[in-house]
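Section 3.1: Structural characterization of target chains.
Under the original work plan, the team committed to producing a structural model for every single-chain target entering the pipeline before any wet-lab resources were allocated. The record below documents one such target. The sequence was received from the expression subgroup and is listed exactly as submitted; it comprises 500 residues.
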Amino acid sequence: MFRQAANVGKATAAVAFGALNECALSSGEEDKNSRASLARRNTARPQKNFHEFVIVGGGSTAHAAIEGIMMTNPKADILMLSEDSKVHHIDAELEANLSSDFLDAYNEWRRHLNPSLDTEPDAVGSVPLTLLLQRTQDKLHLDVEGKSLLLDDGTSVSYNKCLIASCGTPKEFYVLDETSFEAAGSVLTMNTLKDFARLDELCSSVQNVTVVGGGFLGTELAVALARRGARSGLKVAHMYVEDGPLARHLPRYLSKHVQKLITAIGVETVAQQLCTDIKKQADGERLRMTLADDWEWMTDTAVLASTHVDPKNGIAEDSPGLELDPSSGGIVVNSQLEALNGVYAAGATASYPDMALGRRRGCSYDHAVMSGLHAGKNMASDTPVLYRHLPMFHSHLRGIKVVCDGIGRVDASLRTVGFWAKKPDSPQSIERGVIFYKNTQNKIVGALCWNASDTLERVRDIMQHKHTADQDALQEYLSLAPESWVTVVETKRAGNNPQD
């Protein structure tokens, strides 16, 4: 299940359905069985048309919600509607063999998007959970007033509380149709654990790789590949439409600094280039990437690494009463993560009122787990509480010795104030610091800890309680370093030069 947060009970890492392999049906087997016969075949209980709790989804948010429910009601009657036509089991061996760089990237940016079940033997049978394999959530119809779900096989299930915890989907790249590349061995879309494992294996069999995407996932993969290339001779190129890596998130001076760092470890940066098509050469060996300015780029393998996640909310579009946020596409919920009448939403699917930052939709692993856990607790409680957690994301660029933790809107279009600890021999050092992002009302709406994870909780507190603090107050409370060692760097907006 999830191993980095909300680890409050091993029991909920598995589902009590006896022979787990019975649920991993091939497409041929599915055609021979009705959806109704697939439901609950894993339990000894008779088929039911009512469950106290129904969870739509099978990823990290859904599993966290199960933990939350069971913390309050260990014997709760729970029905999970899996998002996939077959349930994927976490492959412990695959994870164990994956390099730490690739595993870190997968855990942060993709793990919560993949429905999966942990099959630890000591946990099997301990959770009162029924599983129903659901081909697609687009065919689910939710009757909010009647508290029932019409399934894609025509059967109906009633509930007391329902959580929509659909896994989001990685945003497709620009004008590229990623689905057309999934069967092509030389183009990886980096959506599943197997994609990361394939990339890890390819490092030893190809001469060059091009990573497309200048966000955190793309940059992490480019740096990870360059570390491998230092040993194997693999050539790595990093292509993005922006003028620098992480340019949509970092002030320009820091993006350019990252560009220098990754260039120094052997990454060829290809900036301000939009890839519009990828085709195999006639020899079937190399790929030809067509760029927007009619240039062509040749590579052995292309890696499409989009960081952004889109919500998957087809169920809300066909269920009267549920409101979609026009700006983010998330299901609108209140501060307790409830949409209305016992229907909750969490994870990438929810648009919620952040206590510090206003209404927003979260896409990080941290939010997927913590919001799911909170929603589950509220669903099982007579006294639901507000969701106050301020989600963060984590990015580890080992090859350039950078660890960053972001909270809120880490958006380069905002005005930034950066506090940097100087080195005695390098007054302009930007190796360790904290950047605050401010809106037009001078309110802090985001923060990035750069090699300063020890300041994360103080940064959280600043964002929650000291929204418009002046620079002196921020520096004093942050305690990054003695005052004489700190340099302050400001930018007015994306693209501006730093103003000391």
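The two ends are 47 Å apart (CA to CA).
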